[in-house]
Design brief:
The protein is of the alpha+beta class. It has four helices and four strands. The protein has helices at 17-34, 52-68, 72-91, 130-147; strands at residues 4-7, 10-13, 40-44, 47-50. The longest helix has 20 residues, at 72-91. The radius of gyration is 15 Å and the shape is globular.
Amino acid sequence: MSQYYEVGDETLWNPSIGASRLFLAQVRLHEDELGLASGLGPMDMDECKIEAGAFREYTEALVARHLRTGHRVILALSEGFVATVLVLARRAGIEPDALRAGADGDGSAGGFRDVQVRAGAPAPPGQGDGDAARERLEALAHRLDRAMPR
């Protein structure tokens, strides 16, 4: 059994029910963290309609926050989810501005920044290594795109 994520008549993703349930739970969690609606409606009869405008704003804020954080645990917990959202966004024709080389990553994520502080520790991924963080996210999204059925 599977479920469908759709923009208009186009199916962006057709995951298993288990993967879909986990994904939607993370969507709702990040909606609360960002203070933004994702544009993903409820799962109704195995279909989730996506409102492209809200999804664009959510994706932009999510990617900007991910690239801006300096907290290793938050990065580890969220990287796969952010890459999955990025795949769906691109399939919907959305390219986040935060991924442009040289972008400052100060999207509309409330202006907060999570950092993990430890004396003598090198800067964690996502903090001070903008291009490298973008490259890691792009590489993971590329791998996931091939693994996410439509």
